Amino acid sequence: MTWAWTWYVVALVALNIAGCAWLLMSHSRRRAGDPKPDETGHVWDGDLTEYNKPLPRWWINLFYITIVFSVGYLLWYGVGHLRGFGHWSSRTEWAQEKATEDARLEDTLRPYAGKPIDALAKDPGAVAIGRTIFANTCAACHGSAGHGATGFPDLTDDIWHWGGTPERILETILDGRTAVMPAWGETLTAQGGASAVDDVVAYVQSLSRPGQPADAAAGRGQALFSTVCAACHGAQGKGNPMLGAPDLTDSYWLYGGGKAALHRTIAEGRSGSMPAWRPALGETRARLVGAYVWTLSPHRAPPAEAAAP
């Protein structure tokens, strides 16, 4: 809250308190010329009358006590930048409560500190905590069940573009990943003509369809692949986990394996980023969520007590 807003609120509160006090004082006393309490000039249906009786004194005093309490409350707690005599602030209270909860969380996480994620994956309690962290942190991109979406990897299979060892998974969670597929449209067209991108698409599709005879387009694409794409994906298209370059010989396509999707990937490039969660989660919580992710693989069944929903 700025100083301008602080003084605006102070003036508004003071005006309301003064107005309430004036209203009570001006209407709780009888004025000259007022009819007596047992006199009335209003009669309905012959016997229904209205008397001019003031509010009981105890009722009026309760209102005065409320006004005194409100003034004391403001003096003790303050308003905006004006600190009260109690030196209270919402920021200080939040910091104290956060410190208490952090200490409690630290006690909860201490038994899991420093343990490998594949070892934690055998602990139902650790996996349950990891599943909760995953739901709050990772599910927005990878889905509540870890199946991913276009541009977001499926965590329930055994395909890991950056490596699927416990150490590599933990590294991915802690420090994030940045993957860039350059746009090769102009380069390929300059080397192989207008059909160059389609030729490379044909060859790349043939890599994941073993046993099918390669056509002429795939043959031309193979030559272009070896000069442009092999540096990252390897001569056989097996990929490179150190670079995040995917294996092109399996049936999994992060951005789609159709001809149109692959044409766009090759011609226009792709850019993907996995945020670094070390600042937000810390290492122990990253290990716990890594343990849960580890259990999602079909080759690593999770404990029955912590099976994924």
UniProtKB/TrEMBL annotation:
InterPro entries: CcoP_N, CcoP_N_sf, Cyt_c-like_dom, Cyt_c-like_dom_sf, Cyt_c_oxidase_cbb3_su3, Cytochrome_c_Oxidase_Subunit. Binds 2 heme C groups per subunit. Its cofactor is heme c. Keywords: Cell inner membrane, Cell membrane, Electron transport, Heme, Hydrogen ion transport, Ion transport, Iron, Membrane, Metal-binding, Oxidoreductase, Repeat, Respiratory chain, Transmembrane, Transmembrane helix, Transport. It holds the Pfam family FixP_N. Pathway: Energy metabolism; oxidative phosphorylation. The chain crosses the membrane at residues 6-25, 58-79. Heme c 1 binds at residues 138, 141-142, 274. Residues 125-208, 216-297 form the Cytochrome c domain. Heme c 2 binds at residues 181, 229, 232-233. GO terms for cellular component: plasma membrane. It comes from the Bacteria. One of its GO terms (molecular function) is electron transfer activity. It is found in: Cell inner membrane. Its main location: membrane. GO terms for biological process: oxidative phosphorylation; proton transmembrane transport. C-type cytochrome. Part of the cbb3-type cytochrome c oxidase complex. Component of the cbb3-type cytochrome c oxidase. Belongs to the CcoP / FixP family. This is Cbb3-type cytochrome c oxidase subunit.
